[in-house]
Amino acid sequence: MEEDTSQQKHQARIYGEILEERDRQDQKWGGQAHDDKHDPCDWIAFIRRHIDKIGDAEFPEVYRRQMIRVAALALAAIEACDRRTDHGVGDETFDRE
Questions:
Q1: pLDDT at 96
Q2: Distance (Å, rounded) from C-alpha 17 to C-alpha 91?
């Protein structure tokens, strides 16, 4: 049981870091108004760009930082998708604006 609690605390810390990164991205780029201009191909490109920055992951801190950024971008993509498709309900296609 104690191990589960330790893992849950560790996961909660990671989730907190991802949410902090989302807040940072929102401050930098403008939040929902900016995010909603992007289609799935854009989000894939953004995520791929951050994955490419990892390189050979020679340094664990670089790998970890980029993975937090990738997770935050994935969260932003899901949030934008849900807004575009009535909160995840339906099967609306994405049109570029």
A1: 45
A2: 31
